[in-house]
Design goal:
The chain folds into 2 domains: about 230 residues, Glycogen Phosphorylase B (Rossmann fold), CATH 3.40.50.2000; about 170 residues, Rossmann fold. It is built from 16 helices and 14 strands. The protein has an 8-stranded mixed beta sheet, sandwiched between helices. Helix 2 packs parallel to helix 3. The chain is globular and about 70 Å long.
């Protein structure tokens, strides 16, 4: 099938976790035999058009007009995405299905759906309600409404966990028979190269244990709870260093919290790190901790498991479904610094447990959450949608073979007349 994907980010642009989903999925869909075109936002230094590992990537620049707010900026980006898709149509290109990722692209995805009269599938990765524990202001209400619109306009809705299944049914009244649960996948990390000499010394002394967090520094990731837990960990295991990797709006606040609590010398805030540095830290750390308060899935935990690192997660959202406590990871209650500290100490005190969850976690990541398997499940969703589409009024009205003989301008006019 010819798939047109709209995504707000794609490597090298990585703002949250979307790029880590859309990128490997797109390449795995190529291996399944599909033709995949991704329209996304521009990244510094990236080409406007490239074909990488079979995926056609088109990056759009925002307009040279200063947007008054975030939502206006996103809307401008959607207009540019529509224009980029329009150029493809003028070149005689066609698509069988549109796949949008989150509310950030719904205006572009919805417009193309109605213009071309082809099915739209939307993947909802998280919700504004979940991120903020409710809807509290006009901006959040606007985003919440666009998430509802995404579910309404989609032929089918893909979500990543049973937790998200319940959430979108409750928030947006999406019928169960319109939803497909397809877990996120994870790329297995290549450890064939050695960690550079002296790399560890940048983050911790040779006799210190390393507790590692990597992710976006926002409220729902729970890093503030991790910092609250540090004094209790140090009281029992003083030679411990906490490496906190990532950036986000909470960075300054978290650094201040560490200073006020007197543990700033035990914390290393790296800021943004590239994938190579992330992987080196995975190889060196003793435990990866993800203390989320809200987590629809938790792909970072899977990445740690795939890196052969023992993981500790909170029993919340999708994380709870990934990890089996004491078998392939450790689970603690969310929001409790004491629970978190005790979970960390449990791993530091019990090397046999650490080795067990490390080994089992790696096996689970490799066997259950590989991207080729995920792509096969997505393909099944596509095939079901397309068959339903062919049996629908839209399928009966589709352009079909006769218009293949028209030139490009006639095709566009014919399409316009149909819509």
């Amino acid at each position: 099938m010819r798939i047109l994907i709209f995504s707000p980010e794609y490597p090298p642009l990585q703002i949250g976790g979307l790029a880590r989903h859309v990128h490997p999925l797109s390449e795995a869909l190529i291996e399944e035999g599909h033709e995949v075109t991704v329209i996304t936002q521009m990244a510094n230094g990236a080409p406007t058009l490239e074909i990488k590992n079979g995926v056609e990537i088109i990056r759009v620049n925002p307009l040279f007009i200063n947007a008054t707010d975030f939502t206006s900026s996103i809307l401008q980006t959607n207009f540019e995405m529509i224009q980029a898709a329009g150029r493809l149509l003028l070149e005689g290109r066609s698509f069988d299905l549109i796949h949008g990722h989150d509310w950030l692209v719904i205006m572009a995805a919805r417009s193309l759906k109605h213009m071309l009269k082809i099915p739209l599938v939307m993947t909802i990765h998280a919700t504004e309600h979940g991120r903020n524990y409710g809807i509290h202001n006009d901006l959040q209400r606007y985003i919440n409404d666009l998430e509802w619109l995404s579910c309404y306009e989609a032929w089918r809705v893909i979500i990543c966990s049973e937790y998200m299944n319940r959430e979108i049914q409750y928030l947006f009244q999406v019928p169960q028979d319109k939803i497909d649960i397809v877990e996120n996948g994870v790329e297995m990390i290549d450890f064939s190269t050695d960690v550079p000499v002296g790399f560890r010394g940048k983050y911790a002394h040779s006799d210190e244990k390393i507790i590692y967090f990597v992710g976006r520094l926002v409220q729902e990731k729970g890093v503030q709870v991790l910092i609250d837990a540090i004094p209790e960990v140090l009281a029992h295991h003083p030679k411990t260093k906490f490496v906190i990797a990532g950036k986000g709006p909470k960075l300054g606040e978290l650094k201040h919290q560490a200073e006020v609590m007197g543990v700033a010398d035990r914390c290393y805030f790296t800021g943004f790190i590239d994938d190579e540095t992330r992987d080196h830290l995975y190889r060196l750390c003793d435990l990866a901790v993800f203390p989320s308060l809200y987590e629809p899935f938790g792909i970072v935990a899977l990445e740690a498991m795939a890196a052969k690192v023992p993981v500790l997660v909170t029993e919340v959202g999708g994380l709870s479904g990934i990890v089996e406590d004491g078998i392939d990871g450790i689970k603690v209650l969310p929001g409790s610094a004491h629970e978190l500290a005790q979970g960390i100490l449990r791993v530091l005190r019990e090397p046999q447990l650490r080795e067990k969850i490390r080994r089992n976690g790696y096996t689970k990541a490799r066997e259950k959450y590989n991207w080729p398997g995920i792509a096969k499940k997505i393909t099944q969703v596509y095939e079901r949608i397309y068959q339903e589409y062919l049996d629908s009024e839209w399928g009966a009205e589709s352009i079909g073979t006769p218009t293949e003989m028209l030139d490009v301008e006639d095709k566009v006019y014919y399409r316009y007349q149909q819509v």
